[in-house]
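thread: overnight batch results

M.L. [08:02]
morning all. the overnight job finished for the chain we discussed friday. pasting input first so we're all looking at the same thing
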Amino acid sequence: MKVLLTLRYPPSPPVCEGMNFPDLHRPGHFDVKMTYGADLMKMDRIEPEMSEWVARCLCDRPADRPEMDELLAELNKQQHLNNQALGGHNAGLQVLWDELLDYRRPQPPQQPP
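M.L. [08:03]
and the structure it wrote out:
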């Protein structure tokens, strides 16, 4: 994932580092979690808001990674902000977003023929 975001291979294998993350359930509190994405926060190619979420996804312990619902809520918030910034001229992104949401929705059972 890191190679896709940075468009380059790292000079050495990734290292798991401790990083302070805001506690989503306790505003004003921070937790140190081990992640392979700590150095993403130092890159200017990635928006700071999104680099934190990517670093969360790269946490070493699965329990420290965000749930899919948390990611979808953040993506929805970012998509709404982008839509406002572009004055509603964001139809292509909206189509992709709708497809992602449709993928996540459970499909109704099919009736046998």
